[in-house]
Design goal:
Four copies of one chain form a homotetramer. Chain A is α/β, with parallel strands linked by helices. The first copy, chain A, has two domains: about 1-125, NAD(P)-binding Rossmann-like Domain (Rossmann fold), CATH 3.40.50; about 150-310, Dihydrodipicolinate Reductase, domain 2 (2-Layer Sandwich). The first copy, chain A, has helices spanning about 10-20, 40-45, 60-65, 80-90, 105-115, 120-125, 130-135, 150-165, 195, 210-220, 255-265, 315-330, and strands spanning about 1-5, 25-30, 70-75, 95, 130, 145, 175-180, 200-205, 230-235, 240-250, 270-275, 290-295, 305-310. The first copy, chain A, has a seven-stranded mixed sheet. In chain A, strands 2-1-3-4-6-5 form a six-stranded parallel sheet, sandwiched between helices. The longest helix of chain A is centred in the middle third of the chain and has 16 residues, at about 150-165. The radius of gyration of chain A is 20 Å and the shape is globular. The relative contact order of chain A is 0.14.
């Protein structure tokens, strides 16, 4: 089955290549990059030597349609997919958008947080939010899947059992989240230089991060009530990995949190609830599509603490996009996504 | 003036040497280490070549008394100072203890958290808790100063203005704290190997960390009411540095938080309140005695978010100990502690 | 096909598990660890959750024989395999030894460098040195394969074409080699702590490293003449990866070095010669069995400079061991070893 | 005494500020940065809060002359000082140039390696090469000092005793050098992102690096004969630090290398020869102006191996510039440059 990648030279695009190139059931028919058009993928990314003989192309819609792709990934900056995807969608090509263009159902909210007019509100309402753990039923038939953000994936999976069970105060939520630097993309920015970011740590965007409305929208679907979330992102001096430390005030203290989490995720192939007392490390999911969770109730007090780790480029981006692709194309949901993390 | 260091081969001991060896007003009369007794300090720590010709000695009380030291630092594991300090104190030698032995006023609480009987309860009540920003008046005349823990320093300095002003709910406090690996000491432990801890991140001791009772004790001094703190420590893959991200629910939303913080710390030489909207980086205090703070109120909601950074080995340990020594010996409080951070 | 792993809790043992556990053609019948006997593998190594339900066992020879294994890996410290392997070998179980016990053909040299008497000289001469690129013909029928050291693999693959072609002075060789910290194993040692090794760099064992005689032995097989190698290992603050920078004085300057390398390795599945002017990065082989090479002749002078990178745990240890196993068991040489490096 | 800094926002400029701002004998009268003109230094570099109230200015020559500076540092990209320094020099202002503009005595060689016409050949011959260990006599009276490159400093100090003694073959020299990322400057470049450079290692510019002619020029001054050096730079995933591993073939094997090094550097305040068998670590010079050396002769063979470490921003740039300033202004050579390295 043929698929294509638009925006193949950023971190999520290259991660799609890493995950898809070795597969025998999938053929990557094209990969585009405006900046690198005309150069071989493996001269830019020597780790793919032997796996990918493709040349970066321009993202020409006609060529894409002619390529015979059944599904196209957009691994582009925000604002691109909403302009280019409709042509493909109308021609019957299915789309998984890894950007934020179709994640927020309220277009006005999107426009406020992303600082531009939305080019394609009509597809916003037809898009399916691609978190399989909460929207699995709708993904197989979706024409357009809005792949969740990296932070939102871990925060949602962490809070989900508490909110569905209705046992925490929905206005008391805190997500103290830490991300490796690949979350900022592959653009050349001084604060992301090794000389600036290594051996240091900081919060950023405390006043308001674009993932806040996305998370609140989805948490409100889980809960019957309005959500108030304090979301604090931090920059970790690591390459890959998100660790979300989540806090919620329990309003029902009789529930066994460990069982609640184990039951909720018993059938999920990519959510792993650790035994009581555990502390998941980001490296245990390095390179894999797993979100690993632990739940605590320190001192037996009324605050639940959930620890959630994921690889921001895999379950937080390209891996989840492949999981969605698998569901959309009728393949095994786990196809191409089963291998142990690279530890140490 | 002569001082001595007991336990000079751990990270806080070596940091005391780094801070004190270049000073001309202080003479280090001895430095002990059971494990390294008889070897020159600078063969173990070549960074001190040219600054320190001392030989590690055994911690022999008679030799210490004979050395003429007016003040001795204990940079030893918990449980040592409470056994060895009393002899010195009774002989009139003043003591700054960098361990936890004299930090908790309630001996029963100490014994529960530290898993041993306290050897010297009578000095617990005479000890002064060595956070100058809250106990400055008592330090100059103290015989024994209990130097605060690394996490407690940043968490207290971060919450202090809010609690003194009485504008947050004292049972709503959350401290999501992240520490570099030197916080774990210089012992050889597998989880602290570069191969284990680098390029990864995790929480630890979520069920209960020994710094929790210390922090709660001191926060209750600031507040009129009982404190309930959720304290979550994390391990950062950096060498030095603590970042505490603090959350509290505002009960009075009319206070200008920025002014509150600026006023409270206007005269403090080692607390630096950043301008509104700032995000302090741990590297900006690398090697220095400064705690740098920023205060936020995201989305104008009712949760205050305070960001506090310090160097866990300096303001979180040896630097604060030197600050206390300066106060005890009648020196300028900032003596030997003024130089810019090593950035980049 | 059943295989076993003796010494499964060190880095090379866990790496064998990572490579073998997902395979469907191989069943890991047992994994031993004296220290961890009785505990589940995946409680110690959560990255293997879902891939491995084994419990660490004691390395009991009878149980091993009863397990039905056709091949056993020794991922043990030096000195273990030479004592335990003979029993297995005599019972017809084939062995891949990842330690140094059977690498040196001259037992006296081995005893001098490893500081102990050799327990099993008779198997030394029957062992095949497991570098497929130079000993492929002998490996399929070998009872005992001595898997090469991590440094020796990269240094040999780098020098091989030059020495086979006889175009460099064999007494002029220099190998300036740099290794990530996993090369030192998983033992708890102070110099390998993140707090000690991160953000720093040093040489070690300049006076003589145990890999020197191994490399010289094999380079002399390639060359007709005695070899004199200056070998300088360094410790890199990275988790995985070796970079060997190799220098040799050309005695025949008319040879096209690029073609020489490309021809020599044209058929090798795990040696990748980069285009002229390239600089291989260790990360491009992270997690893979590839050794990536580039050859230079700076300023057109008479010194050849070869750059060789490998993952010390894969091509430098467990991956090469699996490559040898594949050859010994008549499987495709590349089975289980084909996937792109984890980049970024 | 007043001094100025042109180009204060790059790493060497900021390092000059770190070293000079706390000094009481030096007043920084201005610091320029085209990009940041008009902004306070400490808003860009919060680590300088409390040490520097300066505002970045434009590098206006008239203002500089009016400022009353006796000495100006150029911490600018190559090609700037040769255009701007002459005006200052002719007005009697002394200059320390941290760029490469005046380092090569052969203007044609400079133009070939730096790819541009030299704007000021007449000052090239009047410039003094600012390595105090070899040019100390000429520096106090120099109008213009060409501060050495980072790699050249460590390579020269490492080879100096061997070449002065005439005991190595001058056409056999190899410098395998490794530098932290600050050596590449503060420009935003993708390969210097933490996500690209961390947890990896590579050589670069093997075909020819601009420091090669500089090193060869100076090594030829030390030796009576032409030098042939193979120079291989590598990128270390650390912030600061250079480690040069140097190789030379001994032509006189009777000399005691350890004594040779100790004697040569006995009076040097910033060169530290370690005891026999040592391996200097870059972190032992972190933040300091010291070059630390060890000399080996592995296996008693005929190759000398010298290990040299320095902080590329201090002894390799700003610290050496301050050392030169001290000599030029008649201050103690070590003024402002004596403090222990930041370890750990």
């Amino acid at each position: 089955m043929k698929v294509g990648i638009i925006g193949g030279s950023g971190y999520t695009g290259v991660e799609l290549l890493r995950l898809l190139a070795p597969r025998e059931d999938i053929e990557i028919a094209f990969v585009s990059s405006r900046a690198l058009a005309g150069t071989r993928v493996d001269t830019q990314f020597p780790s793919l030597r032997g796996f990918c003989e493709l040349v970066f192309s321009d993202p020409d819609p006609e060529a894409i349609l002619a390529s015979g792709c059944r599904l196209v990934f957009f691994a582009t900056p925000n604002g691109t997919a909403m302009r280019q995807a409709p042509t493909l969608l109308e021609a019957g090509v299915r789309v998984v958008d890894l950007s934020a263009d179709f994640r927020l159902r309220d277009v006005a909210v999107w426009e406020r947080w992303y600082g531009q007019e939305h080019a394609c509100p009509e597809w916003v309402e037809r898009a399916v939010y691609g978190l399989p753990e909460t929207h699995r039923a709708d993904i197989p038939s979706a024409a357009l899947v809005a792949n969740p953000g990296c932070y939102p994936t871990s925060v949602q999976l962490g809070f989900l059992p508490l909110l569905e069970a209705g046992i925490v105060a929905p206005d008391s939520l805190i997500a103290d989240a830490k991300s490796g630097v690949t979350g900022a993309g592959r653009g050349a920015q001084v604060p992301m230089l090794l000389a600036e970011a290594a051996d240091s740590f900081k919060a950023y965007a405390v006043a308001g991060h674009r993932h806040l409305p996305e998370i609140e929208q989805e948490l409100e679907r889980m809960s019957a009530e309005p959500i108030e979330l304090t979301f604090t992102p931090h920059l970790l001096p690591i390459i890959r990995g998100i660790h979300a430390t989540l806090y919620a005030r329990l309003v029902d203290e009789d529930v066994d949190l460990q069982s609640l989490y184990e039951r909720r995720y018993a059938e999920e192939p990519f959510v792993d609830v650790l035994p009581p007392g555990s502390h998941p490390e980001t490296r245990t999911v390095r390179g894999t599509n797993v979100c690993r969770l632990a739940v605590h109730r320190p001192q037996g007090r009324s605050t639940a603490v959930v620890l959630a780790v994921e690889d921001n480029l895999v379950k937080g981006a390209a891996g989840q996009a492949v999981q969605n692709m698998n569901l959309m194309l009728g393949l095994a949901e786990t196809a191409g996504l089963r291998q142990p993390a690279l530890v140490p």
